[in-house]
Amino acid sequence: MNEDSIDIDLVVSVLSRTVFSPFFTFLVPVFFLFQGYSFGSSYVWYSTFYWSVIFIVWSLRWSSNVYRNGIGSKPLDWNNQIVLITGGSSGVGELLASTLAFRNVTVVVLDIRPFVTDKDNIAFYKCDVSDWREVEVVAKKVIQEVGHPTILVNNAGVVQGRLILDLKPEDVIQTFGVNALAHFWTLKAFLPNMIERKSGHIVTLASVMGLAGSAQMTDYSASKAAVINLHECLRYELDNRYSAPNIRTTVLCPGHVLTPLFSTITVPPNALYRFFFPSLSPLTIVKAIIQALDMQESRTIYLPFYANSSVLIKTLPSFVRDLAQKLANADYMMRDFRKVTAIRGDEIDLDKYAIGRHKLE
Description:
This protein is an alpha/beta fold. It has helices at 8-16, 22-25, 27-34, 42-69, 91-102, 132-145, 169-197, 218-240, 271-276, 282-295, 318-327, and strands at 82-86, 106-111, 122-126, 151-154, 200-205, 247-254, 299-303. The two termini are 35 Å apart.
């Protein structure tokens, strides 16, 4: 997606800064008063009422953020941070690692693929994060050679894109190993020191598919739903059992991101679809992560705008849910999908691994 393209997210961004901004809408009744209208005028009264509603909603959101993160958090001192990124050799992870390294932040990348860079502040460790024994061994090396990570970004992901009856046991094991179990292993390895210091930040890359499923995404959606709930449970454990509320937790639930992971899905080409269901550039995700880290805030981030509806869609009547699923083309986007990342040894013959060609005819 072009960063300058016009879509629903751009419209929402403009509206949030104008007609849905308490600061902007406050000027409307003031304008009418300056024009000579009385306080009892319908123009002043209705515009004041509208501002009051906007202000209440804004206040509730502000109060929620203050409750979770406190008031006046200082910007993060990046000079003292060690950021560990799983799956950091491609896609969002690679861009995040390169961006932070450019800012002279110490970065550690865990991946099965080498990370090619000329930056001396990026340390690469080959590691299958789905394997606890590998994570345990590599974690000791990281701590000894680089130091304890202060920020953990669980970014590694894999997608099979097969109908449920076409999934092999190895597919399911790989999906849950990389997308879900890896989060447990990195937390077991690096969270204890954060709890000891009472500070740190854990970023979880989930997906909108963890909130609403579709065809050919059963294992992927289930694994992402698992990490969304892991994130929620972790937040309550940090607050109430480990007495470490200052360890921040951020979860991202993005829609389609333009990375190799989903490079072979079929997205409808029409302009109306792209307007309401825009694809995301990796840069958009990286900006959201860095902003949450920089502000030292726990956040739940839904991108793009339509992802917010996934939270409520299951509460809608079934026919409305099915209509939304149809309009989004959700059940057919993976029809011609081919897996091009995290290919196992038993999948080398890609001609036999043409995903989504199983036809129910």
